[in-house]
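Quick review question:
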C-alpha cells in the first residue's frame, strides 16, 4: 500500500477541490469517446454515439462520467482508508 504524506494529501485535495464532478466527468468521457472512437464499443448500451453532438448530448454519457468521478471523489475523501472503504462498498452489494 502506498502511504501518502500530509503534503501529498493536501496537494491532492487542493487539486481535486477544483473538479466539478458532473461537468468534468461528462467532458472527460465525451473526450474519450470522440478522440478514441474505438472505445465506443464498450458503451453500446448508451445508444447513439455517432458524432460529437450525439455523444455530448447523451444523458447516459453524462451519468456515467459523473459516476466514475464520484467513485474517485469517494476515494480521495478516504485517502487513509481506501481499502477499508472499498471492502464496505463490496459488502453492501
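Suggested answer, residue by residue:
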Amino acid at each position: 500500500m502506498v502511504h501518502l504524506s500530509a503534503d501529498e494529501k493536501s496537494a491532492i485535495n487542493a487539486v481535486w477541490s477544483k473538479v466539478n464532478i458532473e461537468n468534468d466527468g461528462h467532458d472527460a468521457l465525451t473526450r474519450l469517446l470522440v478522440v478514441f472512437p474505438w472505445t465506443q464499443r464498450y458503451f453500446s448500451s448508451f445508444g447513439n454515439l455517432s458524432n460529437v453532438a450525439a455523444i455530448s448530448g447523451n444523458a447516459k454519457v453524462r451519468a456515467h462520467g459523473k459516476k466514475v468521478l464520484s467513485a474517485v471523489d469517494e476515494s480521495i475523501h478516504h485517502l487513509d482508508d481506501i481499502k477499508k472503504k472499498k471492502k464496505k462498498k463490496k459488502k453492501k452489494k
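Why it works: The mean pLDDT is 91. Residues 59-76 form the longest helix (18 residues).
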